[in-house]
Amino acid sequence: MFESAELGHKIDNATYDAEVPQLREALLEAQMDLAKLAKFPVIILVGGVDGAGRGETVNLLNEWMDPRFIQSHGMGEPSDEELDRPMMWRFWRELPPKGRIGVFLGSWYTWPILNRVSGKTKAADLDQSLDRAKRLEKMLVDEGALLLKFWLHLSKDKQEKRLKILEKDPKTRWRVTKRDWEHYKLYEKFHVVSESVMRHTSTAEAPWTIVEGFDARYRSLTVGKVILDAIRKRLEEAGKKTSEVSAPP
Fold first, then answer.
1. What residue numbers bound the domain in which 190 lies?
2. Number of folded domains that form the chain
3. Which site in 2, 24, 31, 82 is 20 to 30 Å from 193, CA atoms measured?
4. Quick check: is 243 in a domain?
5. What is the pLDDT of residues 72-123, one digit of tens each?
6. Structural domain contains residue 149
7. What is the pLDDT of residues 4-59, one digit of tens each?
8. Residue 245 within any structural domain of the chain
Protein backbone atom coordinates (compact mmCIF):
# COMPACT_ATOMS: atom_id res chain seq x y z
CA MET A 1 0.00 0.00 0.00
CA PHE A 2 2.94 2.31 0.68
CA GLU A 3 4.80 1.38 -2.50
CA SER A 4 3.56 4.44 -4.40
CA ALA A 5 5.09 6.64 -1.69
CA GLU A 6 8.56 5.10 -2.05
CA LEU A 7 9.24 6.04 -5.67
CA GLY A 8 11.49 9.03 -5.02
CA HIS A 9 9.08 11.76 -6.14
CA LYS A 10 10.80 15.13 -6.50
CA ILE A 11 9.92 18.64 -7.64
CA ASP A 12 12.65 21.09 -8.58
CA ASN A 13 12.91 24.60 -7.16
CA ALA A 14 11.87 26.32 -10.38
CA THR A 15 8.66 24.30 -10.70
CA TYR A 16 7.84 24.77 -7.03
CA ASP A 17 8.43 28.53 -7.11
CA ALA A 18 6.24 28.81 -10.21
CA GLU A 19 3.34 26.78 -8.84
CA VAL A 20 3.14 27.91 -5.21
CA PRO A 21 1.80 31.46 -5.80
CA GLN A 22 -1.04 30.16 -7.98
CA LEU A 23 -1.83 27.38 -5.51
CA ARG A 24 -1.89 29.77 -2.56
CA GLU A 25 -4.19 32.18 -4.39
CA ALA A 26 -6.53 29.35 -5.35
CA LEU A 27 -6.57 27.98 -1.79
CA LEU A 28 -7.40 31.40 -0.37
CA GLU A 29 -10.19 31.86 -2.89
CA ALA A 30 -11.62 28.43 -2.05
CA GLN A 31 -11.30 29.21 1.65
CA MET A 32 -13.22 32.47 1.24
CA ASP A 33 -15.94 30.71 -0.75
CA LEU A 34 -16.12 28.06 1.97
CA ALA A 35 -16.55 30.71 4.68
CA LYS A 36 -19.12 32.63 2.64
CA LEU A 37 -21.23 29.58 1.83
CA ALA A 38 -20.85 28.13 5.36
CA LYS A 39 -22.56 24.88 4.43
CA PHE A 40 -19.95 22.40 5.67
CA PRO A 41 -16.72 22.22 7.70
CA VAL A 42 -13.39 20.85 6.45
CA ILE A 43 -11.53 18.46 8.76
CA ILE A 44 -7.93 17.62 7.84
CA LEU A 45 -5.98 14.87 9.59
CA VAL A 46 -2.19 14.87 9.17
CA GLY A 47 -0.45 11.70 10.30
CA GLY A 48 2.49 9.64 9.21
CA VAL A 49 6.05 8.57 9.86
CA ASP A 50 8.35 10.52 12.18
CA GLY A 51 10.46 12.90 10.10
CA ALA A 52 8.08 12.89 7.14
CA GLY A 53 7.12 16.55 7.54
CA ARG A 54 3.86 16.43 9.45
CA GLY A 55 4.55 19.58 11.47
CA GLU A 56 5.98 21.37 8.43
CA THR A 57 2.85 20.55 6.47
CA VAL A 58 0.53 21.91 9.15
CA ASN A 59 2.62 25.08 9.50
CA LEU A 60 2.57 25.58 5.75
CA LEU A 61 -1.21 25.25 5.55
CA ASN A 62 -1.51 27.94 8.21
CA GLU A 63 0.90 30.12 6.26
CA TRP A 64 -0.89 29.63 2.95
CA MET A 65 -4.41 30.21 4.25
CA ASP A 66 -6.31 32.98 6.03
CA PRO A 67 -5.77 32.41 9.78
CA ARG A 68 -9.27 33.72 10.54
CA PHE A 69 -10.86 30.64 9.03
CA ILE A 70 -8.41 27.85 9.86
CA GLN A 71 -7.38 26.42 13.21
CA SER A 72 -4.74 23.78 13.95
CA HIS A 73 -4.63 21.37 16.85
CA GLY A 74 -1.60 19.42 18.01
CA MET A 75 -3.03 16.23 19.45
CA GLY A 76 -0.21 15.03 21.66
CA GLU A 77 -0.40 12.67 24.61
CA PRO A 78 -3.84 12.82 26.27
CA SER A 79 -4.10 14.83 29.48
CA ASP A 80 -5.53 13.40 32.71
CA GLU A 81 -8.75 15.30 32.01
CA GLU A 82 -8.99 13.74 28.55
CA LEU A 83 -8.21 10.25 29.84
CA ASP A 84 -11.16 10.55 32.23
CA ARG A 85 -13.50 10.95 29.26
CA PRO A 86 -14.37 8.92 26.14
CA MET A 87 -11.47 8.63 23.70
CA MET A 88 -13.10 10.81 21.05
CA TRP A 89 -14.03 13.66 23.42
CA ARG A 90 -10.71 15.47 22.99
CA PHE A 91 -11.19 15.54 19.22
CA TRP A 92 -14.91 16.26 19.24
CA ARG A 93 -14.48 19.47 21.22
CA GLU A 94 -12.01 20.81 18.62
CA LEU A 95 -14.06 20.11 15.50
CA PRO A 96 -14.54 23.18 13.27
CA PRO A 97 -17.94 24.77 12.57
CA LYS A 98 -19.40 25.05 9.08
CA GLY A 99 -17.37 27.32 6.84
CA ARG A 100 -14.13 26.73 8.73
CA ILE A 101 -11.13 24.42 8.41
CA GLY A 102 -9.74 22.37 11.28
CA VAL A 103 -6.31 20.75 10.94
CA PHE A 104 -5.29 17.98 13.33
CA LEU A 105 -1.60 17.17 13.76
CA GLY A 106 -2.13 13.69 15.06
CA SER A 107 -5.57 12.15 15.18
CA TRP A 108 -7.76 9.42 16.62
CA TYR A 109 -5.40 6.96 14.93
CA THR A 110 -2.15 8.11 16.55
CA TRP A 111 -2.37 6.51 19.98
CA PRO A 112 -4.03 3.26 18.89
CA ILE A 113 -1.11 2.75 16.47
CA LEU A 114 1.54 3.69 19.05
CA ASN A 115 -0.01 1.50 21.73
CA ARG A 116 -0.23 -1.49 19.40
CA VAL A 117 3.37 -1.13 18.19
CA SER A 118 4.68 -0.81 21.75
CA GLY A 119 2.73 -3.88 22.84
CA LYS A 120 0.52 -2.01 25.30
CA THR A 121 -2.61 -3.24 23.54
CA LYS A 122 -3.68 -6.35 21.66
CA ALA A 123 -4.93 -6.69 18.10
CA ALA A 124 -8.52 -6.80 19.35
CA ASP A 125 -8.03 -3.47 21.12
CA LEU A 126 -6.76 -1.90 17.92
CA ASP A 127 -9.74 -3.28 16.01
CA GLN A 128 -12.10 -1.68 18.53
CA SER A 129 -10.33 1.67 18.19
CA LEU A 130 -10.58 1.49 14.41
CA ASP A 131 -14.28 0.66 14.60
CA ARG A 132 -14.81 3.72 16.79
CA ALA A 133 -12.84 5.84 14.33
CA LYS A 134 -14.89 4.65 11.38
CA ARG A 135 -18.15 5.29 13.22
CA LEU A 136 -17.04 8.81 14.10
CA GLU A 137 -15.96 9.52 10.53
CA LYS A 138 -19.19 8.19 9.07
CA MET A 139 -21.19 10.39 11.43
CA LEU A 140 -19.11 13.46 10.50
CA VAL A 141 -19.46 12.79 6.78
CA ASP A 142 -23.19 12.05 7.11
CA GLU A 143 -23.53 15.45 8.81
CA GLY A 144 -21.89 17.07 5.78
CA ALA A 145 -18.25 17.43 6.83
CA LEU A 146 -15.48 17.18 4.26
CA LEU A 147 -12.93 14.84 5.87
CA LEU A 148 -9.42 14.65 4.38
CA LYS A 149 -6.91 12.16 5.81
CA PHE A 150 -3.22 12.45 4.91
CA TRP A 151 -0.50 9.94 5.76
CA LEU A 152 3.03 11.19 5.10
CA HIS A 153 5.27 8.21 4.40
CA LEU A 154 8.99 7.46 4.28
CA SER A 155 10.83 4.24 3.55
CA LYS A 156 13.12 3.08 6.35
CA ASP A 157 16.24 4.30 4.53
CA LYS A 158 14.65 7.66 3.77
CA GLN A 159 13.46 8.05 7.35
CA GLU A 160 17.00 7.51 8.66
CA LYS A 161 18.38 9.95 6.10
CA ARG A 162 15.72 12.53 6.85
CA LEU A 163 16.27 12.36 10.62
CA LYS A 164 20.02 12.74 10.16
CA ILE A 165 19.52 15.76 7.87
CA LEU A 166 17.28 17.42 10.44
CA GLU A 167 19.68 16.56 13.25
CA LYS A 168 22.67 18.01 11.40
CA ASP A 169 21.06 21.42 10.84
CA PRO A 170 21.22 23.63 13.98
CA LYS A 171 17.90 25.21 12.97
CA THR A 172 16.04 21.89 12.90
CA ARG A 173 18.03 19.78 15.36
CA TRP A 174 15.48 20.39 18.11
CA ARG A 175 12.83 18.61 16.06
CA VAL A 176 14.57 15.23 16.33
CA THR A 177 14.08 13.55 19.69
CA LYS A 178 15.20 10.35 21.33
CA ARG A 179 11.69 9.08 20.80
CA ASP A 180 12.02 9.54 17.03
CA TRP A 181 15.04 7.23 16.97
CA GLU A 182 13.26 4.73 19.21
CA HIS A 183 10.39 4.67 16.74
CA TYR A 184 12.86 4.27 13.88
CA LYS A 185 14.16 1.06 15.49
CA LEU A 186 10.58 -0.20 15.43
CA TYR A 187 10.06 0.79 11.78
CA GLU A 188 8.97 -2.67 10.63
CA LYS A 189 6.33 -2.92 13.36
CA PHE A 190 5.06 0.57 12.59
CA HIS A 191 4.92 -0.33 8.90
CA VAL A 192 2.81 -3.44 9.48
CA VAL A 193 0.41 -1.81 11.95
CA SER A 194 0.06 1.43 9.97
CA GLU A 195 -0.60 -0.40 6.71
CA SER A 196 -3.28 -2.48 8.42
CA VAL A 197 -4.88 0.69 9.79
CA MET A 198 -4.85 2.32 6.34
CA ARG A 199 -6.51 -0.69 4.74
CA HIS A 200 -9.24 -0.96 7.37
CA THR A 201 -10.08 2.74 7.57
CA SER A 202 -9.72 4.00 4.01
CA THR A 203 -13.40 4.20 3.12
CA ALA A 204 -15.32 5.66 0.20
CA GLU A 205 -16.44 8.64 2.27
CA ALA A 206 -13.09 9.14 4.05
CA PRO A 207 -10.17 7.70 2.06
CA TRP A 208 -6.53 8.05 3.02
CA THR A 209 -4.17 10.03 0.79
CA ILE A 210 -0.67 8.60 1.17
CA VAL A 211 2.05 11.11 0.27
CA GLU A 212 5.78 10.55 -0.03
CA GLY A 213 7.31 12.86 2.56
CA PHE A 214 11.04 13.03 1.78
CA ASP A 215 10.99 15.87 -0.77
CA ALA A 216 9.37 18.86 0.95
CA ARG A 217 8.41 20.56 -2.30
CA TYR A 218 6.63 17.49 -3.66
CA ARG A 219 4.93 16.88 -0.32
CA SER A 220 3.72 20.46 0.04
CA LEU A 221 2.34 20.79 -3.48
CA THR A 222 0.67 17.39 -3.36
CA VAL A 223 -1.12 18.06 -0.08
CA GLY A 224 -2.12 21.57 -1.15
CA LYS A 225 -3.53 20.39 -4.48
CA VAL A 226 -5.51 17.54 -2.91
CA ILE A 227 -7.07 19.94 -0.41
CA LEU A 228 -7.85 22.50 -3.11
CA ASP A 229 -9.47 19.96 -5.44
CA ALA A 230 -11.55 18.45 -2.63
CA ILE A 231 -12.84 21.81 -1.38
CA ARG A 232 -13.61 23.02 -4.91
CA LYS A 233 -15.53 19.84 -5.70
CA ARG A 234 -17.57 20.03 -2.50
CA LEU A 235 -18.27 23.75 -2.99
CA GLU A 236 -19.55 23.03 -6.48
CA GLU A 237 -21.83 20.28 -5.15
CA ALA A 238 -23.07 22.46 -2.29
CA GLY A 239 -23.66 25.37 -4.67
CA LYS A 240 -25.77 23.22 -6.96
CA LYS A 241 -27.89 22.01 -4.04
CA THR A 242 -28.36 25.59 -2.85
CA SER A 243 -29.44 26.67 -6.34
CA GLU A 244 -31.92 23.81 -6.57
CA VAL A 245 -33.47 24.70 -3.22
CA SER A 246 -33.73 28.42 -3.96
CA ALA A 247 -34.93 28.07 -7.55
CA PRO A 248 -38.58 29.08 -8.11
CA PRO A 249 -41.10 26.34 -9.01
1. 3-238
2. 1
3. 82
4. no
5. 999 888 888 988 998 889 999 999 999 999 999 999 999 999 999 999 999 9
6. yes
7. 888 999 999 999 999 999 999 999 999 999 999 999 999 999 999 999 999 999 99
8. no
Residue 46 inside a domain? The answer is yes
Instruction: Give the CATH number, domain containing residue 105.
Output: 3.40.50.300
pTM reported for the whole predicted model: 0.93
Q: What is the pLDDT of residues 178-188, one digit of tens each?
A: 999 999 999 99
